[in-house]
From TrEMBL, chain A:
<dbReference type="Pfam" id="PF02779">
    <property type="entry name" value="Transket_pyr"/>
</dbReference>
<dbReference type="InterPro" id="IPR005475">
    <property type="entry name" value="Transketolase-like_Pyr-bd"/>
</dbReference>
<keyword id="KW-0560">Oxidoreductase</keyword>
<protein>
    <submittedName>
        <fullName>Alpha-ketoacid dehydrogenase subunit beta</fullName>
    </submittedName>
</protein>
<keyword id="KW-0786">Thiamine pyrophosphate</keyword>
<feature type="domain" description="Transketolase-like pyrimidine-binding">
    <location>
        <begin position="12"/>
        <end position="187"/>
    </location>
</feature>
<dbReference type="InterPro" id="IPR009014">
    <property type="entry name" value="Transketo_C/PFOR_II"/>
</dbReference>
<dbReference type="InterPro" id="IPR033248">
    <property type="entry name" value="Transketolase_C"/>
</dbReference>
<dbReference type="Pfam" id="PF02780">
    <property type="entry name" value="Transketolase_C"/>
</dbReference>
From TrEMBL, chain B:
<keyword id="KW-0670">Pyruvate</keyword>
<keyword id="KW-0560">Oxidoreductase</keyword>
<dbReference type="InterPro" id="IPR050642">
    <property type="entry name" value="PDH_E1_Alpha_Subunit"/>
</dbReference>
<feature type="domain" description="Dehydrogenase E1 component">
    <location>
        <begin position="30"/>
        <end position="321"/>
    </location>
</feature>
<comment type="function">
    <text>The pyruvate dehydrogenase complex catalyzes the overall conversion of pyruvate to acetyl-CoA and CO(2).</text>
</comment>
<dbReference type="Pfam" id="PF00676">
    <property type="entry name" value="E1_dh"/>
</dbReference>
<dbReference type="InterPro" id="IPR001017">
    <property type="entry name" value="DH_E1"/>
</dbReference>
<comment type="subunit">
    <text>Heterodimer of an alpha and a beta chain.</text>
</comment>
<feature type="region of interest" description="Disordered">
    <location>
        <begin position="1"/>
        <end position="24"/>
    </location>
</feature>
């Protein structure tokens, strides 16, 4: 397998990084198999699993009918029985069809059975807007899942996380939901040398700074980093925190950053009302209130079903300029 | 993965039913045990000892007892919230089920599940599902694991007639048939989805016919005759073990009590209930054994006595179970150690 | 009353299907109960004879209450079990309203049933448990005399923390920093949104107050000094603008006090010797306790007396500026304690390490410029306090006592007071008290 491994220093895309992670998992553990709509012959609706069918065969790269509830539930059952299924759902919007299985079974069975029935299942799905796919393929519903006790929610925003988050997710004895932002698949870059599995308990500071904390995840990380560069030109030194794990939230890293900078902007492509950004903001005020020197600012997706037309879609999403404006308000 | 082994290569692990007195006595005792268990539940519920939702299977004992004759300890069972009978038939001790309903730590789900969520992983009894049809996809997954691991075992999934109206039933039936999963689908058709009669819920009330449309073998069986249920279940199990893919049994039965403890039962005609009581599975088998096995009143009394003694003991034991301290509330939300598998 | 559902806490008996004397068997339906959702049949779990029915149809009973007594299979007989009062829901309601315990009422109705008349004849066993009339209906005269809710006696509104006019708009970090640094937020000009005080502003004020900080960043020192100056200026301007000051002055003979002090100090090591200031402060505090109209706060257009005397002491900071932190409960301190507290307070004020409460809750302030050679201070009141006591230098003056002229140590004590909260006569009583207290130093 080493020959297939992305060579250090060679440019890879996010999509290839996820594929490489899948390949590694399939090679490393016989119990691992991938199932989902069009993951086999088609190569994955987003092209992630292209080539894996030839390599691992139809028993382990399983095309499923368009039955989100049944194949997610089947993943739960197979996980209970000792296998390590990876279930791919095309988009988070479709995952709502399987929400019963994820919430009522995957997240619940261990507790409801008094600790007897663990569900070591990994569910991957794409999320987010930015590709003019309109209102039924574009939403960012990570917050729905981050609400649920009993599951872990990950959002790999970098090539490195895309490549090295799957292994720790598979070794988690409980359900893990991984959100891959649709706009990231074509992002390419140089993968750093294998630094081992990602610590999926911790958020990551992607850019250190002293004046304000930009807290975000997934597809908005790049925008936050761009905003930080613009702010630097104004002599505002922004720290960018990538939440990376949306449940359980790494309070220590977030509040640690805010304690240093005393100001925060929370950026979330999801809707503002009752969303992930609300939770982060609440935790900051709970845990770092006396360190705050300005109200926490939020930059969120507009409260609208994501529209098709490009200019409308752009207006509906957090943009670097919005982040810069919010940061300036906070710094004053 | 290699093709599955053929029927010839498999052994029949359980004995076929016959006029064997010992076997019938076992069936009768098990049904009686479930019936009396359920009656104790009513009493304890009325006294406020048991709370929450409790769904009794009085009248449906032949389903639990008959189907379980065809299962081995290696098989898995997934069922619904009306599962006391299935749990007992599967071998979960009565005291563990009582204790669960009393919210005790000694309950089979440590008091976290209650009546609707009985679990016993060691007996491969995977619940106890409160979402109608929600257990079906999970059962398909358990069966998928058996298939991928080439194991000679099956998953028995029990559900009610109401579940056949759910999308999850149809998704699962399709998936199971498509993938030839070793899944025994048992529809416990008691004619009512809570309060809605079959004909008011299903355009096609022949549920076996609907299952058959997915390309699986499907039968309707008298669910009040435990011997008929056992025969059908054995035949179905044998076929599933032989790699035929999923199998659908519709067991036509009736619950004598209301849907749950909080159901005034206004939607059923008392005369209808009385008619079905004429076909009480316990009476049916008792009468048959009087005719064919020389069974008499003394035998019945002996059985009743044994069952009563067991249940007395079980209730007493259950009442002594400890209560989990509230500090342990968050236990089992996650597995204790991550990364151990 | 059986539990017939997960959410059932009580049920209403609709109908008895059995009568006393009836034989019942396990599984018999004996009654019908209304559970609010539906009428449900009640099943019997005993074999026996219905002895007595304890509850009449129409009665609502909690789950677990006894409905009937089933005895062994024999005819009904009288038993001596305590009976449950039998009555109707209406009567129960009436009893509840009137505070009558039904268990103590003798029923005169059929079968000993308690009637409305029985309840009305009963004196209430306790005060009626009635909620006060709704506040929203202001057109209706209240049933009971309305008492205007008293403001809680403590704590009074304080600068920077309380509500109303004195509330300082500041970020949480700024508030925390101000407390840690011993800076009064009310004296800091805010540069944030809506004039909110931010960390930057507190740091500027602190830098102005602390020469060390100013040294560290000399370039900014002038600006920060100005900020501090402006903050003090703003507060004093507000005081002068809002508070109608009146001023009183008296000269106090300290002969007795100084004499007593010398006697006392002679016995003590140098480090423990008392200075006249301690006596003056203690007397100022005790006098404030005697004249509570001067010890407290003017907020929301009225005066609230403080429950204790937290004596503010004006401390000039090196490098300019002024703070007036409190010596808490100054009236309760012995003179050595008060001395120690004063030293500690001055030292911490000058190093910027005052505690939050010290900066925010003086109830009356003393400013003593005697060590600067000043004879009389006519000070400006710190809002929301209502009085400021000024003490000058202790000087020897020719003084007539009992018709004889002598040289006596004297001090000029002044009072600046808020005319909204008190009048000159009140102020005069304060200065008189101060004088009197200082004549008996051994009691201080």
């Amino acid at each position: 397998m080493t020959t297939r491994k992305a060579a250090t220093g060679k440019a890879v895309t996010y999509r290839e990084a996820v594929r490489e992670a899948l390949r590694e998992a399939l090679v490393a553990d016989e119990r691992v198999f991938l199932m989902g709509e069009d993951v086999g012959r088609y190569g994955g609706a987003l092209g992630v699993s292209l080539g894996l069918l030839d390599e691992f065969g139809p028993a382990r790269i399983r095309d499923t009918p368009l039955s989100e509830s049944a194949f997610v539930g089947a993943g739960i059952g197979a996980a209970i029985a000792g296998l390590r299924p990876i279930v791919e759902i095309m988009t988070v919007n479709f995952s709502l069809l399987a929400l019963d299985q994820i919430l009522n079974n995957a997240a619940t069975l261990l507790h409801m059975s008094g600790g007897q029935v663990a569900v070591p299942l990994v569910i991957r799905m794409s999320t987010g807007a930015g590709r003019q796919l309109a209102a039924q393929h574009s939403h960012s519903l990570e917050g729905y899942y981050a609400h649920i006790p009993g599951i872990r929610v990950l959002a790999p925003a970098t090539l490195e996380d895309a490549r090295y988050m799957l292994a720790p997710a598979l070794s988690d004895p409980d359900p893990v939901v991984i959100f891959e932002h649709g706009s990231l698949y074509n992002v390419s870059g140089t993968l750093p040398p294998d630094t081992g599995p990602v610590d999926i308990d911790r958020a990551a500071v992607r850019r250190p700074g002293t004046d304000i904390s930009l807290i975000t995840h997934g597809g908005s990380l790049g925008k936050a980093l761009q905003a930080a560069e613009q702010l630097a030109a104004d002599h505002i030194d922004a720290e960018v925190v990538d939440l990376r794990t949306l449940r359980p939230l790494d309070d220590a890293t977030v509040t640690g950053s805010v304690r240093r900078t005393h100001r925060a902007v929370v950026i979330d492509e999801g809707w503002r009302t009752c969303g992930l950004s609300a939770e982060i903001t609440a935790r900051i005020t709970e845990q770092a209130f006396y360190d705050l020197d300005a109200p926490v600012e939020r930059v969120c997706g507009a409260e609208v079903p994501v529209p098709y037309a490009r200019q409308l879609e752009e207006a509906a999403l957090p943009q670097p300029a919005d982040i810069v404006a919010a940061a300036r308000r906070a710094v004053g | 993965m290699t093709p599955r082994t053929t029927a010839k290569e498999r052994r029949t692990r359980t004995r076929p039913p016959g006029p064997d007195t010992g076997h019938r006595l076992g069936l009768l005792k098990e049904m009686l045990r479930i019936r009396r268990f359920e009656e104790r539940c009513v009493e304890m519920y009325s006294a406020g000892e048991i709370r929450g939702f409790v769904h009794l299977c009085i009248g449906e004992e032949a389903v639990s007892v008959g189907v379980h004759q065809a299962l081995t300890p290696e098989d898995a069972v997934v069922t619904t919230y009306r599962e006391h009978g299935h749990a007992l038939a599967r071998g979960i001790p009565a005291e563990a089920v009582f204790a669960e309903m009393l919210g005790r730590m000694t309950g089979c789900s440590r008091g976290r599940g209650g009546s609707m969520h009985l679990f016993d992983a060691d007996r491969r009894f995977y619940g106890g599902h409160g979402i109608v049809a929600g257990g079906l996809p999970v059962a398909a997954g358990l069966a998928l694991a058996d298939l991928l691991r080439e194991r000679e075992q099956l998953v028995c999934c029990l559900f009610g007639d109401g579940a056949v109206a759910e999308g999850e039933f149809h998704e699962t039936a399709n998936l199971a048939a498509l993938w030839d999963l070793p899944l025994l689908l048992v529809c416990e058709n008691n004619l009512y989805a809570m309060g809605t009669p079959l004909a008011r819920e299903h355009a096609q009330v022949d549920l076996a016919a609907r299952a058959a449309s997915y390309g699986m073998v499907a039968w309707a069986v008298d669910g009040m005759d435990v011997l008929a249920v056992e025969r059908a279940a054995r035949r179905a199990a044998q076929a599933v073990r032989a790699g035929s893919g999923p199998y659908f049994l519709e067991l036509r039965t009736y619950r004598f009590r209301a849907h749950s403890m909080y159901d005034p039962d206004l939607y059923r005609d008392k005369a209808e209930i009385e008619r079905w009581k004429q076909r009480d599975p316990i009476t049916l088998l008792t009468e048959r054994m009087r005719t064919e096995n020389g069974f008499d009143d003394t035998s019945v009394e002996l059985l009743e006595k044994e069952v009563a003694e067991e249940l007395d003991r079980a209730v007493e034991q259950a009442r002594q179970g400890g209560l989990e301290p509230a500090e342990d509330l968050l236990r089992f939300v996650h597995s204790p150690a991550r990364g151990t598998s | 009353m059986p539990a017939l559902g997960a959410d059932m806490t009580e049920g209403t008996l609709l109908e008895w299907l059995v009568h006393p004397g009836d034989q019942v068997r396990k599984g018999d339906i004996v009654a019908v109960v209304d559970t609010a959702k539906a009428a449900i049949e009640v099943e019997c779990f005993e074999n026996g004879t219905v002895d007595r029915l304890l509850v009449e149809p129409g009665t609502t009973m909690p789950v677990g209450a006894s409905l009937a007594v089933i005895g062994p299979a024999r005819p009904a007989t009288q038993t001596s079990e305590p009976s449950v009062p039998v009555t109707s829901p209406l009567v129960r309601h009436l009893a509840e309203e009137s505070g009558v315990d039904l268990a103590t009422v003798h029923g005169t109705g059929p079968g000993g049933r308690i009637t409305r008349a029985d309840v009305n004849a009963e004196p209430p066993s306790a005060a009626p448990l009635r909620t006060p009339p709704a506040e929203t209906d202001t057109t209706k005269p209240p049933d009971t005399p309305r008492v205007r809710p008293e403001k809680p006696p403590t704590p009074p509104a304080r600068p920077g923390t309380g509500d109303g006019a004195t509330r300082v708009r500041a970020t949480p970090l700024a508030k925390r920093l101000a407390v840690e640094a011993g800076i009064d937020l009310a004296a800091v000009a805010g540069t944030g949104t809506g004039g909110a005080v931010r960390a930057l502003d507190v740091k500027a004020a602190l830098a102005a107050a602390l020469p060390s900080a100013a040294t560290a960043r000399p370039a900014a020192a002038t600006g920060r000094h100005e900020t501090m100056r402006r903050a003090v200026g703003d507060l004093m301007a507000r005081s002068k603008r809002e508070i109608p000051h009146y001023y009183l002055s008296t000269t106090v003979d300290l002969g007795a006090a100084i004499g007593w002090l010398h006697e006392r100090n002679r016995e003590l090591p140098v480090a423990e010797r008392l200075v006249p200031t301690a006596l003056l402060l203690k007397a100022a505090a005790l006098a404030a306790r005697e004249v509570p109209q001067l010890n407290g706060f003017w907020t929301d257009d009225h005066f609230t007396a403080a429950p204790a005397v937290h004596l503010g002491v004006a401390v000039a900071l090196r490098g300019g500026g002024l703070v007036a932190p409190a010596i808490h409960d100054a009236t309760d301190l012995t003179l050595p304690e008060l001395m120690a507290r004063l030293r500690d307070l001055v030292s911490r004020a000058r190093s910027g390490r005052l505690h939050r409460s010290e900066t925010t809750d003086p109830t009356i302030t003393v400013t003593n410029l005697g060590d600067q050679g000043v004879e009389a201070v006519l000070g400006v009141i710190y809002p929301p306090q209502v009085a400021l006591v000024g003490l000058g230098r202790v000087v020897e003056r020719p003084w007539a006592v009992d018709g004889l002229l002598g040289i006596r140590p004297v001090v000029t004590a002044t009072l600046s007071a808020d005319h909204r909260a008190s009048d000159g006569a009140t102020g005069a009583r304060y200065l008189a008290a101060l004088d009197r207290l200082l004549q008996k130093p051994e009691e201080l």
